Amino acid sequence: MELIDFYYVNIHSLFISFIENKRHMAITLCVIYSKNLPSPSTATPPQIKPEKNTQLSLN
């Protein structure tokens, strides 16, 4: 019985540490991603240039 309890506690602690690591990784990824993203106030929509002029000149 003691061996089974010891095994269960080890698996349980491993599982908890695994979950904590996953959560920590997710938080750091979110922080890195949000730092790389431009803020909404400074972000400008991409300017779409019409390609009709170039197509007409090519033809």
Automatic annotation (TrEMBL):
Start and end residues of each stretch annotated as Disordered: 37-59
Name of protein: Uncharacterized protein
